[in-house]
Amino acid sequence: MNILKINCLIIAVTASLLIVSCGKTQKGPVSLSGNIENIHADSVYLINSDIRKAIAVNDNSFSDTLSLQTPVYLKFYADRQYTWIYLTPNTELSLKTDMNLFDDQLVYEGALAEENNFLAKKIVKQVEMAGNSSKFFSQDAASFKEMTENYKNELLSELNESEASSEFKDLEKKNIEFEFLLMLSQYPQANAFYTQSDTQLPNDFANEIEKVDTDNEEDFLLIPSYRDFVIYQSSRKIDQADSGDEVEEIIANIKSQKIRDGIMSQLLMYTISSGGENAQKYYEIVQKYAEDEKLKENAAAEYEQIKKLLPGSPSPEFDFPDINGKNVALADLKGKLVYIDVWATWCVPCLQEIPSMKQLESDYHDKDIYFVSMSIDQKKDFEKWQNMVKEKELRGIQIFADNDWKSEFVREYNINGIPRFILLDREGKIITADAPRPSDPNIRVLFDEKI
């Protein structure tokens, strides 16, 4: 699956790890190997919440041995492509594919071939159905639900007919069901985003969602789509909270400590690391409610790093060339609010914000606000950036950072993901280091409050 195909809001919410408890399985080695044509990366990666394992690639091939105590589902990354793989102790698995047709060419051999070939076909089906997020989520509610139900039923039928192990089948049935519920839960927000209109839902649209227990620790640890479902539902509650105290109440009411730690790790840590409005409060929540010492340490380290980005702090400076080659410095923009969009031409979520950004700039064109779009494309893509700015008729102040992700401004703002929006006051001090996106109505509320 191409990581850039699907908006980070949609479908792939987290890079979850699935760990399966199985009394019959003994600790043992797992042999993983593969051949990937046209790969340019020097390593492939196996990633979960505890492990980031790099496996060297030589002449398009790789091989390594892992020690596992239980079966696991985890994500396998090659360049900007990824797929799920399923491994169990005392087995071997090999894969073959081509980077130019990663999903379509992916095939497995070995003891776990049936299980992993099913997962590979599942991803192809998912991309065929939902790869075009705009088209997928712009359907009316009835059509959307019918399509996703058909997708679910087809997968369940193929799973039952496969020669995969009974343990894997039991697991995947739950996984497929929660994947369906996750898509249903995402539909209202995604539909409103893509259609720019109020979403009309049938009365029974969310019946299945309302019945789900979101505090089931066993499923949270075992089923990746359930974990994603719970995290998504929690993110909606946190986004709608009116205060940090309300967020604390949400966290405190989670019965399972494992789920509580997972929610804080996935949702609160982003605000802490970005210096968002509630960074200090969320840091205090993590220190108060987390049981995972590593999570507490990470929160402390991130908070220490972003203290200088809290509201009222002077903003880090920039001085970069604009689309016409004239340097623009932040110091030149004092006297008005400054709304900064950190983006890149290759970033799909960034591009999806362009229509809303153009409309926002048009609506506030005569107000005391500078709109600054800062590209962090690599220097080799400078011309590509220039062409996109002209083709899409991007407005406001268009500037090009001097060293992409390693630019001092980007590093000082601790930016690890884009798009990222920043709002500064008339004196160049930070109002929020993680401002609402142009598509979020809250940005207009914030503008009107500060103008």
Backbone CA Rg:
23 Å
**Tally of extended strands?**
16
**Approximately how much beta-strand content do the residues carry?**
15-25%
Shape: globular
- The number of domains is 3
Judged by helices, strands and strand pairing, the structural class is: alpha+beta
Please state the average pLDDT score: 90
- Major sheet characteristics: 5 strands, antiparallel
Q: Count every helix, treating DSSP H or I runs of 4 or more residues as helices.
A: 17
Share in helix: 40-55%
Give the uncertain stretches in residue-range form. 2-25
Distance between the termini: 44 Å
Care to describe what's here?
It is built from 17 helices and 16 strands. The radius of gyration is 23 Å and the shape is globular. It has 451 residues and is of the alpha+beta class. Helix 2 packs antiparallel against helix 4, helix 4 (141-161) packs antiparallel against helix 5 (166-195) and helix 9 runs parallel beside helix 11. It folds into three domains: 3-195, no CATH class; 241-309, no CATH class; 319-450, Glutaredoxin. The longest helix is centred in the middle third of the chain and has 30 residues, at 166-195. The chain is 43% helix and 20% strand.
Keywords:
five-stranded antiparallel beta sheet; 43% helix; alpha+beta; 17 helices; 3 domains; 16 strands; 451 residues; Glutaredoxin; five-stranded mixed beta sheet
